[in-house]
Amino acid sequence: MARIMVVDDSPTDVQNLKNMLSKAGYAVVEATSGLDAIARIKQEKPDCVIMDVVMPGINGFQATRTLSKDPSTAHIPVLVISSKSQETDRVWALRQGARDYIVKPVDADELIGKIKAFD
Length: 119
Description:
Blueprint: E1 3-7, H1 11-23, E2 27-31, H2 34-44, E3 48-51, H3 60-69, E4 78-82, H4 87-95, E5 100-103, H5 108-117
Parallel strand pairs: 1-2, 1-3, 3-4, 4-5
């Protein structure tokens, strides 16, 4: 995988994720909302999406569901990253079409390992 889209409304979280991914050799593109992400993913077709849950407008669960139901984007793996740590949140993310779920704060080794598992 070469290009990863990070979707998060927190500039700090985006920068942290970009640093982790860049060090591992990935090219990173950003989106700051679910709506922005859906439009850009359809256009740019990244190899993987890292999706926050709590964002203004449509949340990460809704954006993930939209992407997983669209034949043009359904093949793109979505990794949900959230501060929501309940098992029900993880299960709900997977039901929306996410391939995996990580609870913040993100560990770089765990993040890269999960992305590599999508290959």
